[in-house]
């Protein structure tokens, strides 16, 4: 039988019936075998050692398992703490996890409580890594587009997955995206400018120095190449524009010189407006193409050849223009035969020398000199404008003075008839104007003296000095006044000697003829008496011998009225 002590050792708990049966069967076999008590004790002792060894092995295994659980718990807590530090979570998360461990009773429960927290933290770390990876990939891609030569790329730092670092990367990514958008807009503008310049120059875009891949490239090298190509096209555009404007200026001069009809000008009329245009204002397609410039150049060559054929007519036309300006300014006019003699001399030189360039140069020199003379004549005419206007009024007054003198010599001026009131009204206006003539002459002299002082030259009017003419007028006026005074004194002395009063003659029978004669400035006594009265008048001074003396009476009346009104204002 198994002792109670052995039972207590081997089976500390209540033994199952099967184990009890095994021990009973073992004792019966020992009894049957005849084992001694000593042998039985040794075998039981061996059995006890075997049981203890089994326990020891089991305890060792349990200790190892406990240590494993403790290690797993510690590793889980450390990993949670590391993940929190990596993703920037506050330390309260670790404290909460540790407090949950202390509240549990055994290791398995502790491990079971920390495992869900660890899985959650791992999930959040992977989510944060994914976000970092996306931002980092976008940054590297944009930097590669803008700076393909850059070898270093941004890598993700697994030790720093905080929100702060993620926001920094996102801010940097936003700056890169803004820079990329700016480069895309700049490339679009530059490409537009390049296409526009190519169209204006009539060039194919493939003729430029750009690569086919540059249209979508936003790198620094692509932008630099594009800017350089645009600069090259602009330089070509400026050179062609300068050439075209020079050709257009020559064309306009030739048009004006030869009075080219508008029908012939229509072909280049639209582009002629670009003669003063700036570089940015010329945007029409093929406006500066070589084909178009060659067409303009060919037209200029054609006009130059036409000018050579019409050179003599052009010279005569310019001489006529020059003489017309001088006639308006009352400056001595050159003889037209001199120009023809000069031109014939050039033609003779051409026939002798047989040098076409020599003749062309001489003819061009004549035209250039005429252009200079026309410009100088226009300036001269403008500078003499004030003096000529006053001279025109003064000449109108001279005509009225001459008419008034003839009217006063007519003995029938007071006869009543049809139209007499008009003649009397004109005589009244003429007297008013004649009374202002000394002041008009003084004002005219002042203007002439100022002009001569400013220009340093003598003011000539149709070849005569204007101051000399005015001086002659003043002397003649004084002589006339003295003659009138002498005649009045003589009549007064004759009247006192005879004691007779002036006889009033009866009016003539034909009043209409008298009135008509007075209005025409003549006499009613017929052609012989009229010629006699004209011959008895003093001779007309040289300053009255001008085209103004041929004016009609109605023009004289208009100038007279205007002069009276202006002088009244003065």
Provide a descriptive summary of the structure in words:
- The protein is mainly α.
- Among the domains are: 124 residues, no CATH class; 95 residues, no CATH class; 170 residues, no CATH class.
- The chain has a two-stranded antiparallel ribbon.
- Helix 3 packs parallel to helix 5.
- The longest helix is centred in the first third of the chain and has 51 residues.
The poorly predicted ranges are: 349-358, 500-570
Would you tell me the overall average pLDDT? 76
Shape: rod-shaped
Q: What is the number of helices?
A: 19
SS-based class: mainly alpha
Total strand count, please?
2
User: DSSP strand (E) fraction?
Assistant: under 5%
What pattern of helices and strands is seen along the backbone? HHHHHHHHHHHHHHHEEHHHH
Termini, distance in Å?
Answer: 170 Å
Q: Whole-number radius of gyration?
A: 64 Å
- What is the percent of helical residues? over 70%
With strands numbered from the N-terminus, the spatial order across the biggest sheet is 1-2
Largest sheet entry = 2 strands, antiparallel
Biased composition (Low complexity): 519-542
Biased composition (Basic and acidic residues): 476-492
InterPro entries: MAP65_Ase1_PRC1
Organism: Oryza glumipatula
């Amino acid at each position: 039988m198994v002792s109670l002590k052995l039972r207590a050792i081997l089976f500390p708990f209540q033994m199952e019936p099967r184990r009890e049966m095994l021990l009973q069967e073992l004792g019966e076999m020992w009894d049957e075998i005849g084992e001694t008590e000593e042998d039985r004790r040794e075998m039981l002792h061996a059995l006890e050692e075997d049981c203890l060894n089994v326990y020891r092995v089991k305890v060792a295994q349990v200790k190892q398992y406990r240590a494993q659980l403790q290690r797993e718990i510690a590793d889980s807590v450390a990993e949670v703490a590391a993940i929190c530090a990596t993703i920037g979570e506050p330390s309260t998360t670790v404290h909460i996890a540790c407090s949950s461990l202390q509240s549990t009773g055994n290791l398995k429960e502790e491990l079971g409580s920390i495992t869900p927290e660890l899985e959650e933290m791992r999930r959040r770390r992977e989510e944060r890594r994914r976000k970092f990876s996306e931002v980092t990939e976008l940054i590297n891609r944009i930097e590669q587009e803008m700076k393909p030569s850059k070898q270093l790329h941004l890598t993700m730092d697994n030790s720093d997955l905080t929100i702060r670092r993620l926001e920094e990367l996102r801010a940097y990514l936003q700056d890169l995206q803004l820079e990329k958008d700016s480069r895309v807009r700049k490339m679009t503008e530059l490409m537009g400018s390049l296409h526009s310049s190519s169209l204006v120059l009539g060039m194919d875009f493939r003729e430029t120095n750009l690569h086919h891949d540059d249209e979508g490239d936003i790198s620094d090298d692509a932008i630099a190449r594009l800017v350089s190509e645009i600069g090259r096209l602009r330089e070509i555009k400026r050179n062609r524009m300068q050439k075209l404007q020079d050709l257009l200026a020559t064309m306009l001069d030739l048009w004006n010189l030869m009075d080219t009809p508008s029908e012939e000008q229509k072909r280049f009329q639209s582009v002629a407006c670009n003669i003063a245009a700036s570089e940015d204002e010329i945007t029409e397609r093929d406006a500066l193409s070589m084909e178009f410039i060659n067409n303009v150049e060919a037209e200029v060559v054609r006009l130059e050849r036409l000018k050579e054929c019409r050179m003599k007519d052009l010279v005569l036309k310019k001489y006529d223009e020059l003489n017309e300006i001088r006639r308006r300014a009352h400056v001595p006019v050159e003889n037209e035969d001199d120009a023809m003699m000069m031109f014939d001399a050039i033609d003779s030189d051409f026939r002798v020398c047989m040098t076409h360039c020599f003749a062309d140069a001489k003819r061009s020199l004549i035209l250039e000199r005429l252009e200079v003379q026309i410009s100088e004549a226009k300036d001269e005419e403008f500078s003499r404008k004030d003096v000529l206007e006053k001279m025109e009024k003064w000449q109108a007054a001279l005509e009225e003075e001459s008419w008034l003198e003839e009217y006063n010599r007519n003995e029938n001026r007071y006869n009543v008839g049809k139209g007499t009131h008009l003649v009397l009204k004109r005589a009244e206006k003429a007297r008013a104007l004649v009374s202002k003539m000394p002041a008009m002459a003084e004002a005219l002299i002042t203007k002439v003296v100022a002009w001569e002082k400013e220009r340093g030259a003598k003011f000539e009017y149709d070849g005569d000095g204007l101051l000399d003419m005015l001086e002659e007028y003043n002397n003649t006026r004084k002589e006339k006044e003295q003659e009138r005074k002498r005649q009045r004194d003589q009549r007064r002395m004759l009247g006192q000697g005879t004691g007779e009063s002036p006889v009033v003659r009866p009016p003539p029978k034909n009043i209409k003829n008298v009135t008509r004669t007075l209005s025409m400035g003549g006499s009613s006594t017929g052609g012989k008496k009229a010629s006699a009265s004209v011959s008895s008048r003093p001779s007309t001074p040289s300053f009255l011998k001008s085209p103004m003396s041929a004016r009609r009476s109605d023009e004289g009346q208009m100038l007279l009225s205007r002069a009276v009104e202006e002088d009244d204002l003065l």
